[in-house]
Amino acid sequence: MVLDAETLQAHVARLGAEIAADHPEGVVLVGVLKGALIFLSDLARAIPDVPVEIDFMSISRFAPDSGRVKILYDVQTDLTGRDVVVVEDVVDTGLTLAYLMTQLHERGPRQLSACALLDRPSRRIVPQPVRYRGVEVGEAFLLGYGLHYRDAYRNLPFIFEGDREVVNSRPMVYVAELYRGVATQAEREKPGGRVPKAEEVP
User: Is 92 annotated as catalytic?
Assistant: First the structure.
């Protein structure tokens, strides 16, 4: 396990306090769907004594041929003259965040900054600053607490390191190990019914 639930919530509480101190008159949190949803919900509750509004954005993946993206869901809140914090689950290349910051800057906010639970600067292509940083991470393939593979594992309250090659071939391989009461057909047929550990998965 990379970050257990208690450690995650400690980072969320710290980030919430930092945002509250910088925006005493209130703040609009703009979550990037879907990855930031769980982090954003905890972060909003961790901002004490400050009015918080929540909105969302979603963009397509960067097209490999053109590098272009498009907005799939746009914010509905008028951001003119507002303090806005873009909330991401993880920032690595910085391309997505830079695009979002450019789009939101055109909406006329008073202040615009970014918050990321996980920051992976080793992969940065665009030198996009992250004002509120949770944890710096390396190249590990991480799942849980919003991070997913084919939409699985998002709802886990912790973050763990998975095996990318194993998950590519068997996306649900960790489900029985991590979710109590869940067993796949293969696991039910396994002698003794024991749930295999990740390192045992072929």
Answer: yes
Quote the distance between the C-alpha of residue 61 and its chain's center: 15
Domains of the chain: 5-140 (3.40.50.2020)
Mean pLDDT throughout 137-161? 94
Pick the catalytic residue: 83, 89, 92, 119? Answer: 92
b/e string for 74-101 if b means 16 or more Cβ within 10 A? ebeeebeebbbbbbbbbbbebbbbbbbb
The one-letter amino acid at 136: E
Angstrom distance (rounded) from CA 133 to CA 115: 6
Q: What is the distance between the alpha carbons of residues 30 and 13, in angstroms, rounded to a whole number? A: 18
CB 90 within 8 A of CB 36: no
139 burial (CB, 10 Å; 0-12 / 13-18 / 19+) is: exposed
Residue 18 has, within 13 A of its CA and on its CB side, a CA count of 17
- Predicted TM-score (pTM) of this structure: 0.85
pLDDT tens profile 156-177: 999 999 999 999 999 999 998 8
Q: Rounded to an integer, what distance in angstroms lies between the CA atom of residue 53 and that of residue 55? A: 7
